[in-house]
Structures are given as structure tokens and as C-alpha cells.
Fold this protein.
Amino acid sequence: MSEHSTGKLTMEKLVSLCQRRGFIFPSSDIYGGLSSCWDYGPMGVELKRNIKEAWWRAVVQERDDMVGLDTSILMHPRVWDASGHLSQFSDPLVECKNCHLRWRADDLQDEKCPSCGGELTEPHLFNLMFKTFMGPVEEEANVVYLRPETAQGIFVNFQNAVNTSRKRLPFGIAQIGKAFRNEITTGNFIFRSREFEQMEIEYFVKPGTDEEWFDYWLEERLNWYYRLGIKKENLRPREHSEEELAHYARKCYDIDYNFPMGWSELEGLANRGDFDLKQHMTYSGKSLTYLDEETKEHIIPYIIEPSAGVDRSVLAVLCDAYDEEPDKDEIRVLFHFHPDLAPVKVAVLPLSRKENLAAMAKDVYADLRPGFMTQYDDTQSIGRRYRRQDELGTPFCVTVDFQSLEDNQATIRERDTMNQIRVPISALRDTLQAKLAGEDLFVLPPGGQIWKQESGG
Ligand code: ATP
């Protein structure tokens, strides 16, 4: 929060703002919602898309050692045997004998029900995969699972990717997609839901180079969050203890974010060794080795896996960008989104609905829209419209006023400082482009002038 911040962000505040401004709604809202499922509204869908695009750009488009995949959610049931999910992907479940609420035993501090203090049953293992049936007959032979992670789709396509992309080690495969987990306890808004999206990288390396690649990816991933404006003090890498390590992992780190409910995992990073390719070779009977051209030997690559949650990234970005500032007698609520992530980049606001002004503003709107996600708003007073755009995190507002009709200029108002400049309408598109890419507001195009300077900036 800025130095002017007035209040602390609570999850309740965020949930309510997200609903009011069209970021996130409870799923099936008119039926009372569905536990732990969420719908992204008009603003949320843009924010989420921008996060996924920023990730894809950083890990696929801008690199020559990465390719992408989009694999199916339903996979051959043997995949989950090989991966260990059928035998290992379970949490210990306990039930209160009194109120019948269910809990994850490893989340509990003592042996009583956290809700009513009642006695709990012995824990039994509960598999977190959602089961369904393939085809019209509901019998055991037709059971399939909704994938609990996107990673397995990458492992089973390792040979396809090598053969078709001609990538040599070290190289990686990225995938963004839905995953499903029948979590015992959910909550904290979109932090833990039963349907969510992941952004996963499986990076294949020569055994022996895995530790340096692990360090590389940890740094790379932290830098990605920093570049998108997440504050350094709100991120921390945390190494897993020996007891915490998953069955497939040689080493694990969580990248934790300081969410309103406390430090919690945003992304996991694992050195998976050769566990996955070996398992799929055994279970499928197919070779998933790689010919090392230097030694002419067939090797099984090691895998470094940075696995991020899209929804947890959305939540971290929302929390990090949220701010409240005193503004005269009111409080200005705003999101300081990085311009690449902001759902709306520019809002076009005619000062009045008068016909000639509206026509000019609509022309401006039509000119800007192909370049940026742009909104047109001619309701309420200009002050209220600025506040609304602040709450959406829109970096720039363009105001067309009566003087614009005479001098063909419009005002650009910046969200964070509320400073304003006035520029020729013909220079608006290029100027906004430059400002969205990080150029200082007061670098003016020919004919431009500083209009209103709110702060010392
Ligand atoms: P947790 O310990 O919080 O249950 P995890 O260690 O099981 O998470 P991973 O299996 O490492 O999570 O999954 C990789 C990423 O997927 C997580 O870092 C998180 O961002 C996301 N993720 C996992 N489970 C959920 C969920 N139920 N809801 C939202 N995102 C999730």
C-alpha cells in the first residue's frame, strides 16, 4: 500500500469489492452458490487472461528452449496409477461425531472438532481425485478421473514434443489448464477451490545439472512476480523439510505470498528427478528416453517443475495492488495493477453527454479500442467516474471536454498520481502506448502540456 494508505486489506473487503466491481462471483450465485467454485466476471476474466498471457509470454514466447502444450483433462486411468495419484494423492480425513463436520487431520491443532469441540473419528485416507465414467455405462471398468494437475499431460507427451519440436536438452514444456481436486477443506476465497487453473512448466535437463537448473528457475519465477509489480516483501521462498517432501521429489521450494490470511503457497518448485518418465516407461511399456548426442547414450532426463496457480496469482495480484487513500472527506480505493495486468487499460470519459462532445469522444473510443482494452463511460459526474476506474485499476482515463471541440486536445489522467496532461487527440494512441509501456507521464508529445499536477511527481 502507498504511504497514504488508510486501511488494511481483509479478505471480506476484497471479496465484496470483487463482487461489486465484476471481478469474481460465487459460482451458480442465483442458486446460493456452489461451495469452493468461483466465476470470473467481466473484469476478472481480463485480469486472469492477462496473467496467463504474461506467463506464456515470459516462459514460451520469449524463450527458445520452451514449447507449449494443451492436453486433455481426461486421461487414461493408468496415468494415475503410474503417477502415484491413485495410491498417494490423499489427505487424512476426520469427522466430528457430534456435528459431523469433516476436517483434514493434518490441519488441526488438537484432537477436538474446531467447530463444536466434539470428539473426532480416527483419520482415514481420502483420495482427492474427482471420479466420473467414460461412456454410458457406469461401472468400475469405465472410471476416469478429472486431472488433479496438468503436469501428467506433459510427461506422457515427452517423446511427441521431442520428436516434433526438435528441441535438445535442456528444454521445457509449458501448459496452462484446469485441474480439479476434491479438497476436504476449502476457503479463503479463490485460494483453495475444487476447480482451479494451473500454469506448469516441466523443464527437462541432463542428470547432474538439475541442481543448478533448480536454482535458476527459482530465481526466474521470483523475478517474474517482481516484474509484474508484486512487492518483494510479500514473497518468500521456503524450502520443504525432509518430512514434507512429496514422494516424487528430491527437493522442493514453495514460493509463499503474504495473503491476508497469512503466508501461504503461491507456487511450488520441485526437482522431480527421473521419477515421472521412469514411472510412465514402466506402466506404458514405451520408451521415454532421450539420445544424448555427445555420448550417444540413451538417458532419462531429470525434471525441474515450477508449478503456479492461476487463481492464486490472481488473488496475490489483487491483494498486492489494493490500496486505500484519504481523499478530501472520502477514501479513494484503487488497484495499482501493472499496466500489462490491468483489465481495462484506458477509459474514455466525455465531460458531458452533449451530442457534439459525445460524437468526438466516441471517435476517440473507436480509435483506441483496437489497440487497448478500452471502456466508454458517460454516466454520473466526472469525479465519480474517475473513482470507478480507480477501483477497476484502470491506468489511464482520457477526458474529452468542451475545449476539446476547439483545440482537438484531450486530457490523460494517470491513476496512481492523479496527474494530468493534455495532448493532441491525434497523438493519443501513441502517447498512451508509451505510457502503458512505462514512459513517464510528463514526457509530452509535440503540442502537449502539463495540465494538473496533484502530487510532487
Ligand atoms: P497446497 O499445499 O496449498 O494444497 P499443493 O502443494 O497441493 O498446495 P501443488 O500440488 O504443488 O499444490 O500445485 C501447484 C500449484 O497449484 C499450487 O502452488 C497452487 O498455486 C495451485 N493449487 C493447488 N491446489 C489448489 C487449489 N485447491 N485451489 C487453487 N489453486 C491450487
The chain is about 30% helix and 30% strand.
